[in-house]
Amino acid sequence: MQRSKVLIVGGYGEVGRQIAHILLDRHADLEIVLGGRSPGKAAAFESERVHTAVVDTNAEDPLQHAGEHISLIISAVNDLQDKLLLAAVRRKIPFIDVTRWTELFEQASAKLRNVELHAPVVLSSGWMAGTASLFAMLHADSLENVAVDIHALYSLRDKAGPDSTAYMDRMTIPFHITEAGKSRLVHPMTDPVKVQFPNGYKAKCYRLDTPDHVTLLKASHMDTASFRITFDSKASTSLLVGLVNSGIWKMISGKRFRSFRQRLLYNPGTGSAHHVLIHLKGRDHNGRPAERRIAITDPLGQTHLTALGAAVQAEKLLLMPENEPLAPGVYYPEDLPDSRMDTAAIMDFFKQYGVLVSY
């Protein structure tokens, strides 16, 4: 019997490498292909089941040299022109993407509406590969008229790849959120909310544009979705807020000042815990007000939590029987639960890899 083969594009980076380790750990019959522009940069794996391939997302056909019999593609690198996505669609290969900010998410969604799909496409680009929105949905399934507030504490000392800085160039672009079913325009790094995270850290969190604002609201019982962020350096957070709201950040946008912007928010270190706090407000089945708080901590950091978010989505596709594949279509991270991966199985998955969840 031929092994299933998973291609991880961006497999040489921090997130891609960790996705590979998780999947290898869980599936003894799985073959992994690490795809990127420079195979020589691939991380060393002590496994005969790991190979490399040239995959350039800027090429007209990024999958030209990726090999045959690929069962699943996971994209952990920016696909700015959707060339990788559309190459997978043409080949009828299931596809998971975990890297799109909202504009690219909506760009991909528009293109997918105009093509015939023969395999599932999972746009799992919310916070930490959709982990935050997935947890929000799991804990809101018995509520109605739900308002979801997601708060993230981002460590400037954590491991991170260059694609993680893409949000810096979107700090001056307003975006829409939905509150009580009504859309309104907001600006990044505004509307602060004071939050205490699981580690006791207290700080103001500020608005940031993520696909969670879009995907969560596709569920009929969700009325409001909001995402805010803070950094574990209050000085850096205050400086960024001041630069954005004064208009200076917009003035220093572009390539000339990119190194300055990176020095402020991109100084990857050896790693630090990542914390997410989710606040749900809604009504229970009796119509009474109900609130829930879910605190998530990954001691191994945001890249590890992102890798787990990608891997749990991949797990569902890999576990589908060949004679009952997931129907072609566009899916979001919150669509994960089903009869094969219920809430308990999903929670066990994250806890098995050290993620701490409290209420």
Automatic annotation (TrEMBL):
Domain Saccharopine dehydrogenase NADP binding: 6-98
TM ranges: none
InterPro entries (UniProt xref): NAD(P)-bd_dom_sf, Sacchrp_dh_NADP-bd
Domain of life: Bacteria
Record Gene3D superfamilies: NAD(P)-binding Rossmann-like Domain
Name assigned to this protein: Saccharopine dehydrogenase, NADP-dependent
Species per Swiss-Prot/TrEMBL record: Paenibacillus algorifonticola
Highest classification ranks of the organism: Bacteria, Bacillati, Bacillota, Bacilli, Bacillales
